[in-house]
From TrEMBL:
Entries under Gene3D superfamilies matching the protein: 3.30.1120.10, Alkaline Phosphatase, subunit A
InterPro entries, alphabetized: Alkaline_phosphatase_core_sf, ARSB, Sulfatase_CS, Sulfatase_N
Gene for this chain: Arsi
Name this protein carries in UniProt: ARSI Arylsulfatase
GO molecular function: metal ion binding; sulfuric ester hydrolase activity
Keywords in alphabetical order: Calcium, Glycoprotein, Hydrolase, Metal-binding
Domain Sulfatase N-terminal: 50-361
One Pfam family here: Sulfatase
Length: 573
């Protein structure tokens, strides 16, 4: 095995990065609270269903939090995690839609048909309508439910929208990637539209407001208008820190000495998000929710290393099944936790939040059989053993098959060319093409994309299609044991066969031209009626000659609809 050494700085120096903390009580640039409401209180009795705040960040790398030794300042997350329970054996999915679908349904993506890629803006696809969602179960339990932020679970029909899937209110984007200020999203050349929605309407009037600020302020308003006597669930799915790399200048200035430009912008976005979480925490205390609240923090997938993110010292990045793509930042902060201020190594997966939170809410799980998640609250709160012993990371039959995989390599029971990954106990197996497999140190000393020179790379394995790691002893996936332990490989392949027998067909329809924002007033939104299937005929693609002036046309459309909206609002007033 050939290994390229690091150049320019030592391994020890990389592992010794700390974070520059500042006073937790320093007035936040995000918060609009005039006085400090963070007062000490006695531990409450767990007498009523708790208020649940679930915070999901986008593309935040494993290394990109202060308590993991990052050079990025995250004092709020560090304190909340330190006072709660850090989840250091916590797994998510490698990309956006799969993580969100598994959170909302409590099911592996092979059981919802979303096992391949993401839901794209022009696809007639969404979270299957027969799935009973987490917010719907919480509504049944008497909760008020609200979503703020990124949906990315499909919107081609109105029935797919957050307000039809269990949320009383929604403010956010439907697609997976928008501008932080203008909320524009382009799904290819000339296919651009506005994507910020209030409920089921386009929120033209909110354009120009930085999304991290906007979402934190909306959470504060929700809390201010609700009674803490009644249980509330707020799902805060920050757009941050997904590309585009955009942040207010005052946050970038803090990292002016950071040589890597992408890392500097990314770090600013993380710190801005951290202060938004601080603002939300203040609001919980100010309006009387905190003492009976559970705050869950989770990332949605690994960091994108060429966009400033870092998963160091884990292998791989976003979009891969290496630990850098699927091991997430996670913690729970709550006065209701019995054993606080500790680190938990209990095995937890993002599907576990569904049964855990419904159980906390005293909801009924008997009518949702076949969940892949487990109730892990006893493991989190009391330090008991996790009921979970294995995780199916995924089986994706549509992903490009590995060139050197075969049924023969899979003992005649599994085609190792198929992309799949599973963890059973301390063992992790990968087959097919797991994705980009290098270890990338924090990009702090060079200018992007020059960070590739400080890359550690394994040059063997290019002709492989099976990897096996003892992930407990080797969390960085440096020692492939597939040849030494064929017995374990065969056992884990048998588990893949078992799961594959339960999989439903992949839902990944062709894109439909009817979704073009031109046909929806310049904004992304539902385009199919309730009676429409997944295929339409007779719909023309917008003419190329019109696309040449796309930007101008969209500006005119938006201006028209904004003026129209202003007039309508004036008439209402």
């Amino acid at each position: 095995m050939a290994v390229y050494a690091f150049t320019g700085f030592s391994l020890v120096s990389l592992l010794s990065f700390g974070y520059l903390s500042w006073d937790w009580m320093k007035p936040s640039l995000v918060a609009d609270v005039a006085t400090d409401p963070m007062e000490k209180s006695l531990p409450p009795a767990f007498a009523r269903p708790p208020h649940i705040i679930f915070i999901l960040t986008d593309d935040q790398g494993y290394h990109d939090v202060g308590y993991h030794g990052s050079d990025i300042q995250t004092p709020t997350l560090d304190r909340l995690a330190a006072e709660g329970v850090k989840l250091e054996n916590y797994y998510i999915q490698p990309i956006c839609t799969p993580s969100r679908s598994q959170l909302i349904t409590g099911r592996y993506q092979i059981h919802t048909g979303l096992q391949h890629s993401i839901i794209r803006p022009r696809q007639p696809n969404c979270l299957p309508l027969d799935q009973v969602t987490l917010p719907q179960k919480l509504q049944e339990a008497g909760y008020s439910t609200h979503m703020v932020g990124k949906w990315h679970l499909g919107f081609y029909k109105k029935e797919c929208l957050p307000t039809r899937r269990g949320f009383d209110t929604f403010l956010g984007s439907l697609t997976g990637n928008v501008d932080y200020y203008t909320y524009d999203n382009c799904d290819g050349p000339g296919v651009c539209g506005y994507d910020l929605h209030e409920g089921e309407d386009v929120a033209w009037d909110q354009s120009g407001k930085y999304s991290t600020f906007l979402y934190a302020q909306r959470v504060s308003k929700i809390l201010a208008s609700h009674s803490p006597k009644d249980p509330i669930f707020i799902y805060v799915a920050f757009q941050a820190v997904h590309t585009p790399l955009q942040s207010p200048k005052e946050y970038i200035y803090r990292y002016r000495s950071m040589g890597n430009v992408a890392r500097r912008k990314y770090a600013a976005m993380v710190t801005c998000m951290d202060e938004a979480v601080k603002n939300i925490t203040w609001a919980l205390k100010k309006y009387g929710y905190y003492d009976n609240s559970v705050i869950v923090f989770s990332t949605d997938n690994g960091g994108q290393t060429f966009s400033g993110g870092s998963n160091w010292p884990l292998r791989g990045r976003k979009g891969t099944y290496w630990e850098g793509g699927v091991r997430g930042i996670g913690f729970v902060h709550s006065p209701l936790i019995k054993r606080k201020r500790r680190t938990s190594w209990a095995l937890v997966h993002i599907t576990d939040w569904y049964p855990t939170l419904v159980s906390l809410a005293r909801g009924n799980l008997s009518n949702v059989p076949g969940l892949d998640g487990y109730d892990v609250w006893p493991a989190i709160s009391e330090g008991k053993e996790s009921p979970r012993t294995e995780i199916l990371h995924n089986i994706d039959p549509l992903y490009n098959h590995a060139k050197y995989g075969s049924l023969e390599d899979g003992f005649g029971i599994w085609n190792t060319a198929v992309q799949a990954s599973i963890r059973v106990g301390e063992w992790k197996l990968l087959t097919g093409d797991p994705g980009y497999s290098d270890w990338i140190p924090p990009q702090t000393l060079t200018n992007f994309p020059g960070s590739w020179w400080n890359l550690e790379r394994l040059t063997d394995g290019l002709r492989k299609s099976v990897w096996l790691f003892n992930i407990t002893a080797d969390p960085y996936e440096r020692y492939d044991l597939s040849e030494q332990r064929p017995d374990v490989v065969r056992n884990l392949l048998t588990r893949l066969v078992h799961y594959n027998r339960t999989a439903i067909p992949v839902r990944y329809p062709a894109e439909n031209p009817r979704a073009h924002p031109d046909f929806n007033g310049g904004a992304w939104g539902p385009w199919a009626s309730e009676d429409d299937g997944e295929e339409w005929e007779g719909i023309r693609e917008p003419l190329k000659s019109r696309n040449k002036k796309k930007k101008c046309k969209i500006c005119k459309l938006r201006s028209f609809f904004r003026k129209l909206n202003t007039r309508l609002m004036s008439n209402r007033i």
